[in-house]
Design goal:
Oligomer: homodimer
Number of domains of chain A: 1
Number of strands of chain A: 17
Largest interface: A-B, 47 and 47 residues
CATH class of chain A: Alpha Beta
CATH topology of chain A: S-adenosylmethionine decarboxylase
Strand order of the largest sheet of chain A: 9-10-11-12-8-13-15-14
CATH superfamily of chain A: S-adenosylmethionine decarboxylase
Mean pLDDT of chain A: 93
Order of helices and strands of chain A: EEEEHEHEEEHHHEEEEHEEEEE
Distance between the termini of chain A: 37 Å
Helix content of chain A: 10-25%
Structural class of chain A: alpha+beta
Low-confidence stretches of chain A: none
Chain lengths: 278, 278
């Protein structure tokens, strides 16, 4: 499954309920009855998902969700989301949509149409941060960065207390971490390069009932220029730091009886842009 | 030149100094010593520009500027900006850049490197409006729209007093207008369809010295969710209606001794988004 996505397994941790893999291109989590795979770059996730569907067989699959975010430089990719849903629909009937305008942050989502009861574990939240700034962002652009420092700077010991974790610092820059505790997971991926920095968090920890406001803490530390919050059966409170406006938001129900929430935030302070010479 | 861009000439007006053509895919203006061509959709502007350079010959060309905005659904286009500058650089040395992040409004610009004194006529300004709203936006989505009504609703008799004009309403929807007066021009193109509406204004009228605030008036009438202002040797005052923030801005000098200004504005009021099913 990983090699079909054009990725490699770099390392692995596990507990009684979950196996977590750091991939060369993001992360894979495997439970007895479900799988989450995230990839990035020039990976071919659709090939991996198609093969998994064929292997498991459609009859035994309860639910499939397939997501891609804004397609920038889409001509560099092996497929578009439109191509991908055509591949998926040859196997599984499903509903696909784009949330958000093409000229702004947006998100593509395919969900299978079969009715089912979503397990509580699927209360997933994603925080996608663009153009981070400040002292932690500066540190993340240094070649001396270490897993221990990043873990501490992001306050992960506090935010995800009791989680076993597996993390990598990449050369020249970049950081990935998987954390697991019982059937809960979180994964953070950092591409810190100036001009196009991006940090993603995905977790099934219930952020509404968590001791700390995980999203607010990470936003205050990483100070992104803009960010998106995507919630499946969960909604995150609007953060106040950095000072921001909600550009757009959307909530809509899917077949399995829960809501998808999408919100896009933008710092109010204008950014001084530099021309990027080509 | 027009057919190479995969466009057709629909109509034509002229005065002593300028010929102005409405094209199936935007507009063309021709003076004795300069040309402005705008195209959209699946047109192949680079083929047209390359042929023009070859015909005129590089030695006789003083200055070339080639622009494209955000490339969404770029895989549907015959070429990317990167392809286009490679084609241009086979003919003319030039500087190319992107202003604005890929995940937000941005603009691609190529300018030839030959030193020259820009003529005052080149004080050009562009106002690019996304997701218009309100009663005029609603009218522009009706099939009963007429040139006379649109001309009046946009207050063009006041904003561009004394300009001769040529305008078309398209089926099912859409509007284009060219106006000329002496060596001045303006052109407005409207794609009013909900979910992806877009209105552009381009003019060499000096907006800083004009009797009316043209940009502020059009923004108040069309109420776009977001808009960009691009100025060549001219800068537009930040508009206050609709209530907005400046997301990012950039000013940088080009070889010919003037500044390019880019600013991106966003309404502060959050937009309720609808999923667009695919």
């Amino acid at each position: 499954m990983v090699s079909l996505a054009k990725a490699d397994i770099l390392s692995h941790i596990e507990n009684d309920q979950c196996d977590a893999y750091i991939l060369s291109e993001s992360s894979l989590f495997v439970w007895d009855h479900s799988v989450v795979i995230l990839t990035c770059g020039l990976s071919t996730l659709i090939d991996s998902v198609s093969a998994l569907i064929d292997k498991v067989t459609v009859d035994k699959l309860t639910y499939i969700r397939y997501q891609r975010k804004n397609e920038y430089l889409a001509y560099l990719q092996a497929s578009t989301f439109i191509d991908d849903i055509s591949t998926l629909r040859q196997r599984v009937p499903g509903t696909a949509c784009r949330v958000g305008h093409l000229d702004n942050h947006h998100h593509f989502l395919f969900t299978s149409d079969k009715s089912c009861q979503i397990v509580p574990q699927d209360k997933t939240c994603e925080l996608l941060m663009y153009h981070i700034s400040g002292s932690v962002a500066d540190y993340l652009c240094t070649e001396q960065q270490t897993v221990a420092d990043i873990y501490q700077l992001l306050l992960l010991d506090k935010l995800f207390a009791g989680f076993e974790y597996d993390a990598h610092v990449f050369t020249p820059l970049g950081f990935s971490i998987n954390g697991i505790k019982d059937n809960f997971y979180y994964t953070i991926h950092i591409t810190p390069q100036e001009q196009s920095s991006y940090v993603s968090l995905e977790t099934n920890v219930n952020l509404e009932q968590h001791q700390f406001d995980i999203a607010a803490t990470l936003l205050a530390i990483l100070k992104p220029r803009s960010w998106d919050i995507i919630g499946f059966d969960t909604e995150m409170a609007a953060p106040t730091v950095p000072k921001n406006i909600c550009v757009g938001h959307c909530s809509y129900p899917i077949q399995q009886g829960y809501n998808v929430h999408f919100s896009h935030y933008q710092q109010t302070c204008p950014e001084v842009l530099s021309p990027e010479f080509l």
